[in-house]
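FIELD: query
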Amino acid sequence: MAFENAIITKEDDEKYGLSEIYYKYNPYYETFINELRWTIDRERDCWAWFLYSFPGYEHDHDYDTKSIWILYHKGEIIEMIIDHEVNINRKLVPEEFHRIWKLLDLKPNHTQSLNKQDILHLLKEILEVYRDRDLLGEEPNYTMELQDLTDCGVK
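FIELD: result
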């Protein structure tokens, strides 16, 4: 099996304690956990979940492109701050949509079973499946890259 975008089930919530994780980052929002989506590989016992968007400061009720994600791998939880940008040049490549994911922070940056390179490999695999499903749906000519900025002092 491979990673897939899925709706969280009641069984998922009970198995992983997802409600508790969700409300840690979103204490003021009431939601039914089974209305939320994530990217999961059930056979590998690994998933990533977009949890929180930082407030934007240009407009009221706006959101920044920086967000908090959780990466779970066989009982180990890693918190990530990820930013993104889109590189669209419709004049040069009319059909291309290129997403640049920027990993800004990783806590911890390794676990007992994963070193940092393993984490980056998993995250890239997950983001290739995740795409921008909530925003754009299926973009036919989607490409992406993951930049590790965790050691650059960029936050």
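FIELD: remark
The mean pLDDT is 83.
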